[in-house]
Amino acid sequence: MSEAWRPYADKRLIKLRAETYTKIRQFMAERNILEVETPVLSHATVTDVQLNSFRSEYSSPQSSSGKILYLQTSPEYAMKRLLASGTGAIYQISKVFRNEEQGKLHNPEFTMLEWYQPVYGHHQLMQELELFLNLFAMNQCEKISYGEIFLEHTGLDPHTCDTNELKSMAQQHGMSSKIEEHSVLLDFIFSDKITSTLGNTRPMFVYDYPAYQCALAKLSNSTPKVAERFELFINGMEIANGYSELNDPREQDRRMREQVEGRGDDDEVPPAVDEDYIVALEHGMPPAAGIGIGIDRLVMLAADTSSIRDVILFPLLRPRD
User: Fold this and answer.
1) Tens of pLDDT along 217-239?
2) What is the band of 139 on the pLDDT scale with cuts at 50, 70, 90?
């Protein structure tokens, strides 16, 4: 008889997940960060061209046609609407959904911890995240800028280098010669040549990313401008992504509309700009920094396993017994 009905994670890992949630809630309570809950199903979704949402159609007796709704890739928009309403510091542990690849580090449904600190900038939030990591016996983090780590591994300054230099290097690592976009070349080189080396001795923050990686982040006042964004890497794996939040409604609206147009014909029904989110920014979201942490990957580290499937009780796809 098939045993596929059983949870894929064993009892030890089920308990480890529960202990992780307890530690998170204790950490947040000690800092007066309020736990909130927002919908996973919404009329709008992320416009970022790097992310794809699951669509659902809602039909009701009151409507003659179905309404498209989206499973959220992150609770970000709704949580920022709460910030604009005056909640103060908030966090959420939520299920999120991304219609993309599966693999050792990806599952279409996963668990995210997201939190926001009003007044903070991205460096202050990095400091708070270091304290958070102490809960899991991870400390003494390294910090390095994106520009420094890219230059160290490639000899190129990512903020000023020529596209042809990037193209030549990308081709050496197997990328198609047809790719011409500067941003795509940068992303490929960073993920293919650099990411696996990050955080292998101790957790590493990489901060101040190229300006094009600023969908929801503030840009610096420096020259050249950079996105006030950071990522945390441990054992070559991205664990967290955070930034100083953009709270300028006109600039946010402009970026989102540009992203929708950039999707081209890839989407049968392209996502629209979340007007409620823009109105919340117009109302006045305070300066803040926010972060999203992959809980499943955090549990992977604690369990010393290399596959996300091992720490999810019922992964979407699993071997049949």
Assistant:
1) 999 999 889 999 999 999 999 99
2) confident
Residue 264 clears pLDDT 70, i.e. is over it: no
- Tell me the whole-structure pTM to 2 decimals: 0.93
Closest CA to 75 of 24, 100, 101, 111: 111
What backbone phi and psi angles, to 5 degrees, belong to 29? -65, -40
Q: What is the pLDDT of residues 181-228, one digit of tens each?
A: 899 999 999 999 999 999 999 999 999 999 999 999 999 999 889 999
3-state secondary structure the chain: CCCCCCCCCCHHHHHHHHHHHHHHHHHHHHCCCEECCCCCEECCCCCCCCCCCEEEEECCCCCCCCEEEEECCCCHHHHHHHHHHCCCCEEEEEEEECCCCCCCCCCCEEEEEEEEEECCCHHHHHHHHHHHHHHHCCCCCEEEEHHHHHHHHHCCCCCCCCHHHHHHHHHHCCCCCCCCCHHHHHHHHHHHHHHHHCCCCCCEEEEEEECCCCCCECECCCCCCEEEEEEEEECCEEEEEEEEECCCHHHHHHHHHHHHHHCCCCCCCCCCCCHHHHHHHHHHCCCEEEEEEEHHHHHHHHHCCCCHHHHCCCCCCCCCC
- Adjacent-strand bridge partners of 113: 93, 293
The count of other CB atoms within 10 Å of the CB of residue 150 is 24
CATH class of residue range 11-141+202-311: alpha beta
> pLDDT per residue over 265-291, tens digit each?
555 567 889 999 999 999 999 999 999
**What does the domain layout of the chain look like in residue ranges?**
11-141+202-311
Contact residues for 317 (Cβ-Cβ < 8 A; gap 6+): 102
Identify the residue whose tokens are 């396993």: 305
